Amino acid sequence: MANVLITGSTGMIGKGVLLECIDDASIETIVLLNRNPIDVQSEKIKEVLLKDFTKIESIKDQLGTVDACFHCMGVSALGLNEVQYSQLTFDVTKALIDVCYEINPGMTFNYVSGQGSDSSEKGKQMWARVKGKTENYLLTKGFAKAYAFRPGFIIPERGIRSRTKFYDNIYRVFRPFFPLFKKMKSVTTTGRIAQVMIKTIHMKQTEQYLENPQINELARE
Predict the structure, then answer these.
(1) Which of 64, 113, 204, 212 stands the most exposed, by the fewest C-beta atoms within 10 Å?
(2) What pLDDT, in 10s, does the model give residues 75-122?
(3) What is 123-158 written as a DSSP string?
(4) pTM here?
(5) Residue in 24, 19, 18, 20 with CA at minimum distance from that of residue 5
(6) Of the candidates 180, 164, 179, which has an alpha carbon nearest to the alpha carbon of residue 74?
(7) Distance between CA 17 and CA 53 in Å, rounded?
(8) Chain-wide mean pLDDT for the chain?
(9) Of all helices (H) and strands (E), which one includes residue 2?
(10) Regarding beta strands 145-150 and 153-155, do their DSSP bridges make them parallel or antiparallel, or are they unpaired?
């Protein structure tokens, strides 16, 4: 039985992870760290609200014993400069990583990054450099298990919708083609991502960077 911490459970990926964790018998308790309350009820859930995630140290004692962290929270880089995006991506994630390491360095830490993230931190795309820097900090921190999920196109399941209006509109247009898309290696789903995250708790994976083909393969095993 595992106790998990989930961030971003009000978003598309995070909510998918939350619903799978509720249904999975191997998950005992679910701590949700959000800025705003969520509309999902379960005896497993304990919700902790925090407006400024860089101040996560202030609520560390409320998190309890954590065996895994599923960091699904993220923001779009649209309209942000590198300093702003770095504050909302790297700084927030670093604060979470540091607190989780204090709580339990033996835990599994999964970070939802993105396809095309730049591990060299020197590429032309600003968001990719910041994501790559964030991945590098996590993967060198020293956790027993740590993984960077790099999904590309994701199909939302179980009635989940994207909170970004632009993406939600795209999903509406392409919804009739979802059954076909699900057969493609380059496309994954919120459910598959969640299933693989749970699997990483119980079994060490050979690769630390998991893109859609790897996520799909592990979900099928």
Answers:
(1) 204
(2) 989 899 999 999 999 999 999 999 999 999 999 999 999 999 999 999
(3) SS-HHHHHHHHHHHHHHTT--SEEEEEE--EEE--T
(4) 0.94
(5) 18
(6) 164
(7) 20
(8) 94
(9) strand 2-7
(10) unpaired
